[in-house]
Amino acid sequence: MTTPQRVESDLGWALGRVARAHLRVAQEQVAGLPGGPRGYQVLVAAAREESSTQLALAQKLGVDRTVMTYLIDELQAAGLVERRPDPADRRARRVVLTEAGGARLCDLERRLREAEQHVLAPLTPEEQDVLRALLRRVAEVDPDTASACEVARDLAQEC
Q: Which CATH class name applies to 17-158?
């Protein structure tokens, strides 16, 4: 008979523990942002996607389109994004980062990177880079994997 392994050797336990720690420090950094973590994801997507419509953002981030409307309303009211008509489809609106939104995003990215450094402190910078690369590869394997918003929501309910 083999001796059972300690819980700390279980991949699920380790991933859950790291994910909860990351979520906790990340939520602290985006606490004042409209929509919190979801608002941050919209800012990132608006900055990196050239012609993202509300619908495209909702689908990409796994957010209900009605919820996305309210989220973008809040970000727009804060002066962080604007809706602009899509020249290819007058019914659609592109979500575009404002100058203030870009500045806020830069600040949030810096603060989140510092928070990540705190979570990953036991690793060398090289190990951190390897871990990030490996996690990106694993995350891309299953196209049915929940969106970052769903993962964050589920983990927040566990805390």
A: mainly alpha
